[in-house]
Automatic annotation (TrEMBL):
It comes from the Eukaryota. GO terms for cellular component: mitochondrial matrix. GO terms for biological process: mitochondrial tryptophanyl-tRNA aminoacylation. InterPro entries: aa-tRNA-synth_Ic (IPR002305), Rossmann-like_a/b/a_fold (IPR014729), Trp-tRNA-ligase (IPR002306), Trp-tRNA_synthetase (IPR050203). It comes from Phaeomoniella chlamydospora. GO terms for molecular function: ATP binding; tryptophan-tRNA ligase activity. Its EC number is 6.1.1.2. This is tryptophan--tRNA ligase.
Length: 254
C-alpha cells in the first residue's frame, strides 16, 4: 500500500525492499488494514467517510467482502469510499528538520508527532491555539500569500484550515489572493494569515473544551458518558451478532 511509505517516513522513490526499510516494518503496518476491514464489514457498513490516505484500506475491505460473497453467497455490502470535500489537514511542523536544499514535507496532523506544537487539539485553550498557529512552519516568502501545496505546503495548509473552518465555497487560490495577498502591508501578510486562522479556530472550538472538561470531571458528565457507552455497546453487539449468524450459516457452522 502506498500509505506504508508515509507511515515509515520514506521518500516516494525509496524502495520498500531495502534492508533499512525492512528493519522499520512493524506488525501494526500489516494488521491495521485487516482490523479496519473487520470493523467495517462486521457492521455491514455501506459507506465509510475517510481521507485519501485511507482509500486503499477501504478498497481492501471491498475486496475481502467481494471474495467472501463470491465464495459463500451475499452477506456483506461492498462499502463505498466517502472522500469528504475538506482537504487533508497537515502537521504544523515537519517530522524532520528540513535542510536548506530539501523541499519542506509535512506529514498528516497526528497525535503521534513528537512536538505538541504540530497539532491542534479540541481541548487546547485559545492561548495554546494561537501559539501553535503563529509558530507554524511556513517559508521565508512573507510578502506574498499563494496556494501552492507542492512548493509552499506550510502556507497552503493554513489556507486549507481557514477555508474549511469558514466553510468558504470559493477556490482556495482565490481566497488566498483576495483575503490575504491583497492587503497593503506586505511585511505582515503571513502574520495576518496566521492571526486569521487562529481567530477562526478559536471561534469554531469555543465551548468544546468546556464541554469536554464537564463530561470528564463531573459526576453528571461521567454518568452521561457511561450511559452512552453502554447503549452503544449493546447496539454494536446486537448488530455484530446478526452479521456473525449470517456468516456461520453461509459457511456451514450453525
Amino acid at each position: 500500500m502506498t500509505q506504508w511509505k508515509s507511515k515509515l517516513d520514506l521518500a516516494e522513490d525509496e524502495s520498500m525492499n531495502s534492508e533499512a526499510t525492512k528493519a522499520k516494518l512493524k506488525l501494526g503496518l500489516f494488521s491495521y488494514p485487516v482490523l479496519q476491514a473487520a470493523d467495517v464489514l462486521l457492521y455491514r457498513a455501506t459507506a465509510v467517510p475517510v481521507g485519501e490516505d485511507q482509500k486503499q484500506h477501504l478498497e481492501f475491505a471491498r475486496t475481502l467482502a467481494g471474495s467472501f460473497n463470491h465464495s459463500y453467497g451475499e452477506v456483506f455490502p461492498l462499502p463505498d469510499v466517502m472522500i469528504l470535500p475538506t482537504s487533508r489537514v497537515l502537521s504544523l511542523r515537519p517530522s524532520q528538520t528540513p535542510s536548506p536544499n530539501t523541499p519542506l514535507r509535512l506529514p498528516k496532523m497526528s497525535k503521534s508527532h513528537p512536538s505538541p506544537l504540530s497539532r491542534i487539539l479540541l481541548t487546547d485553550t485559545p492561548t495554546s491555539i494561537r501559539t501553535k498557529i503563529l509558530s507554524a512552519l511556513t517559508d521565508s516568502n512573507t510578502s506574498t500569500i499563494t496556494y501552492e501545496p507542492a512548493t509552499r505546503p506550510g502556507v497552503s495548509n493554513l489556507l486549507n484550515i481557514y477555508a474549511s473552518i469558514t466553510r468558504d465555497p470559493r477556490p482556495i487560490p482565490e481566497i488566498a489572493s483576495l483575503e490575504f495577498d491583497s492587503i497593503s502591508d506586505s511585511e505582515n501578510k503571513m502574520k495576518h494569515l496566521k492571526m486569521k486562522v487562529a481567530d477562526m479556530l478559536i471561534k469554531e472550538l469555543d465551548g468544546v473544551r468546556e464541554r469536554f472538561d464537564d463530561l470528564l470531571e463531573t459526576k453528571s458528565g461521567s454518568k452521561v458518558l457511561e450511559e452512552v457507552a453502554e447503549k452503544g455497546k449493546i447496539r454494536a453487539r446486537e448488530a455484530a451478532e446478526k452479521t456473525m449468524k449470517k456468516v456461520r450459516r453461509k459457511i456451514g457452522l450453525n
